[in-house]
Design goal:
The complex is a heterotrimer of chains A (252), B (270) and C (270).
Chain A (H helix, E strand, L loop, with lengths): L2 H20 L4 H4 L2 H12 L8 H36 L5 H16 L2 H12 L3 H26 L3 H8 L4 H35 L6 H11 L3 H29 L1
Helix pairs in contact in A: 4-5, 4-7, 4-9, 4-10, 4-11, 5-7, 6-7, 7-9, 8-9, 9-10, 9-11, 10-11
Chain B lengths: L6 H21 L10 H12 L8 H36 L14 H20 L2 H12 L3 H26 L3 H8 L4 H35 L6 H11 L3 H29 L1
Chain C lengths: L2 E9 L5 E10 L4 E5 L6 H8 L7 E6 L9 H9 L1 E4 L11 H6 L8 H9 L4 H10 L15 H15 L3 E5 L7 H18 L2 E5 L3 H7 L3 E5 L2 E6 L6 H7 L17 H4 L7
Parallel strand pairs in C: 3-7, 3-8, 5-6, 6-7
Antiparallel strand pairs in C: 1-2, 1-4, 8-9
Helix pairs in contact in C: 5-6
The chains are: A mainly alpha (252), B mainly alpha (270), C alpha/beta (270).
Chain lengths: 252, 270, 270
């Protein structure tokens, strides 16, 4: 541990103490017996969860809506991402490249939830806002990956086809695309997996799916139903993880 | 006339995707027309129009800076809490400190009995998304940064606990094993055997997680957990596009700043 | 006149002088073999004729026109009449053989047809016929990465055959194909050129193939034409001098030193 390490350590400790002080969090009050009892009372009302057939059916519908949001959003993102990736990899000149790269960076820098809040204002509450939010953010992510893959793809096949008189678009489809499409599909599926998790929580700002159901049940102090939704979210993640692991194993 | 053997599987796959997308579009209430509806258009137009110019009044900038510092504080305090949770739990969970795995003797089952529920608890903490925790804590302790700190503390405590345990297991365990074999207790074996080996990676990962915590703090603000996110949500509700633009810009700058600080800290560890 | 190079020189961007004042006239329907050591400029020569490279000096005329005086569309139409077999087949490996072969006619198909053929191949029988001439018709629906090097080269040749160009250029098209099969492939190319009355210019590494199948041999060395003669006038000494920079061995399919007399067989292309 040299001097620099000690300085860093001191700074970090100062930052932690400063943070707690700034936030004026009364740590002792937070962990006092009364606070603990209050929180226990609050969390106790979440059990037992509402397992009535009626609500389970609603939770099921919410899960389907969540999956639909993630699926449609990802498909739209793959299409738009591909379109924007073409100028972004430099095929249409340096100006188009800079502009499209800026657009992609803008789309992906803003977190999905912020997009969701913005979309709720654009199109109202509901799953459409969530779908648009995922589509916008994921377009930035996928588009950038597509652009980099296209830039690194070997140019010889397309050039050879153009040398034989092919239209540049045909040369792209026959010469460049086959080399990259497998990677595109794999990455899109990977993003879909991530987006399912995202779609579940976007709803807390009103963008549909399980998240919106959770927010509503908490607002109405229906903790038992809220617990059901949380369990549904967990179950969804577990199943998606297992399914994707199984799929990956089969592809090997 | 020969037939393409790949034609049928391709067709079936395409048909399947289309068939699945149709109810998908219905379920998501996909209506691009809504974006161009006259009623909405005016609201959207007004909203979009207010995005520029950016709100740059001295009062507002002061508010933004306050919120940003609050976000940084939430992330830092949250990480401290996460560390306090993760440190002891990771020691309990890691198999490197398990005496029972070195050789026969007492403690084989008690070790497992202790590790499994702790592992499960850690998994539960991090499987529930931090924003759900934030939502719950806002209802439990009220609006404001406390809910954010608690949410990050629990979620990231779960993440750090698991990763720390893995770091302990993946490093060079020989010094630790040697100490345990010569009769040392768990804690001394950890402090003298494990910690020196694992410390660089632990610090590096924790600093990287701190960066993520900053982003998470902003996002949690949207459900009332304080910081920049909460201000952004307020501005959106008041349709003050200029304020939202400013805060988005500040958010992007904040992310860059956090990236810089974390890179510098990780260089110090080298 | 099909091809006319008038004191063409080519200097690569890195300063390497590939061609120095080369003059060459090839009439329509002629079959010409280009031989020479590695790095002599054979590939550069072919690429200049193919309009892939623009000469640094001198004038090139391909199929009777100066390609660099044409506008984009006219150049594309000209290129559709030129078929080049590359030494390393420029075929994306994940593509299927049928699609790779059909790619030969992209220059003459309308864009919609090219794209539609990706969904379902537009001319399976035509592709199969070409592959049959290259003795790999059974690989029609295989993926190109399942083929050996020699098989892939033959797919490249099949693609150019399918293109049915007016000018056939081949750059060491059988370097990875076994000798007996190479002989049949070159024979197939020269038969194709004769049957359709089109020009064939082939650069070959194996001198015996050149001397056997072609009525005109052009020796290239260090970016210049060393000789331009019918095969019966190509002497042992000339060949030795041509390949002096490589070993003293004149490359043949068998890789052994053979006298020019033994290499010469009755040419079939007249």
């Amino acid at each position: 541990m040299n001097a620099r390490h000690w300085i860093a350590l001191v700074l970090m400790c100062a930052a932690v103490i400063g943070s707690f002080t700034y936030l004026a969090i009364d740590v002792r009050a937070l962990f006092s017996v009364e606070a603990a009892a209050q929180m226990w009372n609050y969390f106790a009302r979440f059990f037992p969860p509402d397992f009535s057939a009626d609500y389970l059916a609603q939770a099921w519908r919410g899960t389907l809506e969540t999956i639909a949001i993630s699926g449609v959003g990802t498909v739209l993102a793959a299409a738009c991402g591909m379109l924007i990736a073409l100028p972004a990899c430099g095929r249409f000149g340096p100006v188009a490249r800079i502009v499209s790269r800026f657009v992609l960076n803008f789309l992906r820098s803003i977190p999905e939830l912020v997009w969701a809040a913005l979309m709720v204002f654009a199109v109202g509450l509901g799953p459409f806002a969530g779908t648009l939010a995922l589509a916008l953010h994921t377009t930035g992510v996928i588009g950038r990956l597509f652009a980099e893959t296209l830039e690194n793809a070997p140019p010889e096949p397309a050039l050879a086809l153009q040398l034989a008189g092919a239209h540049p678009a045909a040369a792209f489809f026959y010469g460049t695309l086959p080399n990259v499409i497998a990677q595109f599909v794999a990455y899109t599926l990977y993003r879909w997996e991530i987006n399912i998790r995202m779609a579940a929580i976007l709803g807390v700002v009103g963008a549909g799916g399980l998240g919106q159901m959770l927010y509503m049940s908490l607002s109405l102090f229906q903790q038992a139903q809220a617990m059901t939704i949380i369990l549904a979210m967990l179950l969804l993640v577990v199943i998606v993880d297992a399914a994707s692991a199984a799929l990956r194993a089969r592809m090997e | 006339m020969a037939r393409d053997p790949a034609a049928l599987p391709r067709f079936v796959l395409t048909a399947l995707i289309v068939v699945l997308l149709i109810p998908g579009f219905k379920l998501t209430e996909f209506e691009p027309g809504v974006l161009f509806d006259t009623r909405n258009r005016e609201t959207i137009g007004r909203f979009l129009g207010t995005f520029f110019p950016l709100a740059l009044s001295a009062d507002f900038l002061q508010l933004v800076i306050k919120s940003t510092i609050e976000t940084l504080a939430i992330a830092t305090a949250g990480m401290a809490l996460a560390l306090a949770i993760a440190a002891p739990l990771s020691l309990l969970v890691t198999r490197s400190l398990s005496i029972s795995r070195i050789g026969p003797g007492p403690g084989l089952w008690s070790g497992r009995v202790l590790r499994t529920p702790v592992r499960l608890a850690l998994m539960l903490c991090r499987s529930v998304p931090e924003i759900v925790w934030a939502l719950l804590f806002v209802r439990a302790v009220g609006l404001g940064p406390t809910a954010g700190v608690l949410a990050i503390g629990i979620t990231y405590g779960g993440m750090l606990g698991k990763v720390y345990a893995e770091i302990f297991e993946s490093g060079d365990t020989r010094p630790t094993v040697a100490l345990l074999e010569s009769g040392s207790g768990h804690l001394p074996a950890f402090l003298y055997g494990m910690l020196p080996v694992a410390l660089p990676e632990i610090v590096s990962y924790s600093v990287y997680r701190w960066e993520c915590a900053i982003r998470a703090s902003v996002i949690m603000g949207f459900v009332g957990a304080g910081g920049l996110g909460m201000q952004m949500e307020l501005s959106m509700r008041m349709l003050s596009g200029g304020e939202v633009s400013t805060m988005l810009l500040v958010f992007l700058l904040l992310v860059m700043l956090a990236d810089g600080i974390s890179a510098a800290l990780r260089r110090v560890i080298e | 006149m099909s091809v006319n190079l008038d004191r063409v020189s080519l200097v690569h961007p890195n300063g390497h002088r590939a061609l120095a004042g080369v003059s060459l006239k090839v009439d329509a329907g002629e079959c010409v073999a280009v031989i020479g050591p590695s790095g002599a400029g054979k590939t550069s020569l072919l690429r200049v004729i193919a309009t892939a490279l623009r000469p640094s000096g001198g004038v090139v005329q391909t199929l009777g026109v100066d390609p660099w005086a044409l506008d984009r569309r006219a150049l594309r139409r000209l290129r559709a009449r030129i078929g080049m077999v590359h030494q390393a087949p420029p075929i994306p490996l994940r593509q299927r053989v049928v699609t790779a072969v059909l790619g030969g006619r992209l220059g003459s198909w309308p864009l919609w047809k090219s794209l539609a053929s990706l969904a379902y191949p537009a001319d399976i029988d035509g592709a199969r016929a070409m592959l049959g001439r290259m003795e790999i018709a059974d690989k029609l629906f295989e993926r190109c990465d399942r083929l050996s090097g020699g098989q892939l080269q033959r797919v490249g040749v099949a693609r150019v055959l399918y293109q049915q160009p007016d000018l056939l250029l081949t750059d060491e098209p059988v370097s990875a194909v076994d000798p007996a099969l190479s002989d049949r492939v070159i024979g197939e190319l020269s038969r194709e050129a004769q049957a359709r009355g089109v020009t064939l210019i082939a650069s070959l590494h194996a001198v015996d193939l050149a001397l056997h199948w072609f009525p005109r041999i052009v020796g290239v060395r260090a970016g210049e034409i060393a000789f331009d003669l019918p095969p019966d006038q190509v002497s042992d000494d000339m060949l030795r001098e041509l390949y002096a920079s490589e070993s003293a061995v004149v490359p043949t399919q068998m890789g052994e030193k053979n006298s020019a007399l033994a290499l010469r067989r009755k040419p079939l292309c007249s």
